[in-house]
Design goal:
Layout lengths: L2 H20 L3 E11 L4 E4 L2 E5 L2 E4 L4 E8 L6 E7 L9 H7 L3 E11 L7 H25 L2 H11 L6
Parallel strand pairs: 1-7
Antiparallel strand pairs: 1-4, 2-3, 2-5, 5-6
């Protein structure tokens, strides 16, 4: 008979010790991406996640590659940063995980897209401007080189005259 109450006590002890582990909270981490205009297709680290506005769960803090595309807009390639809040750093993160409540780390990134300019004449004009700028930069770089140092190099490479 004494064995039966002892087995019940052990079962109760096991339940009481494991119950807090089952009642622990968790941390939810989300990134919400919005854009102007809305409805842009979004890739996060090369994976398509949907159209803006979109919310996605993530596991790890850090830098994320963000790509947005929308009809009539220039594609946007950028980065988003997700830094951990103060309560989700070592050693506090363990304590937060053990609290029987849900914690939420939420990041909101908003991007403004630029209209696409598909006018071929404007493209040719921009190419001409870039060419002119390139030639001007090359000319200024050549003028910056000292002519005296160039002649010194030339005279050093010529053999000396012997009479």
């Amino acid at each position: 008979m004494a064995a039966m109450p002892r087995a019940g006590f052990m079962l109760l002890a096991i339940v009481l010790l494991t119950a807090p582990l089952l009642l622990t909270g968790c941390v939810r981490r989300t990134i919400t991406i919005t854009s102007e205009p809305s409805g842009a297709l979004v890739w996060l680290n090369g994976r398509e996640i949907g159209r803006t506005p979109v919310t996605v769960d993530f596991l790890h803090y850090g830098v994320y590659d963000v790509q947005l595309e929308a009809e009539g807009m220039e594609p946007l390639l950028t980065q988003g940063h997700a830094s951990p809040p103060w309560w989700d750093n070592i050693p506090l993160d363990l304590a937060v995980e053990l609290i029987p409540a849900q914690s939420h780390a939420q990041f909101e990134w908003h991007y403004v897209m630029q209209p696409r300019d598909d006018d071929p004449n404007a493209l040719v004009e921009r190419a001409r401007q870039l060419r002119s700028q390139l030639h001007a930069d090359a000319a200024s770089s050549a003028a910056a080189a000292s002519p005296s140092s160039a002649s010194a190099v030339e005279s050093a490479s010529l053999p000396a005259k012997s009479d």
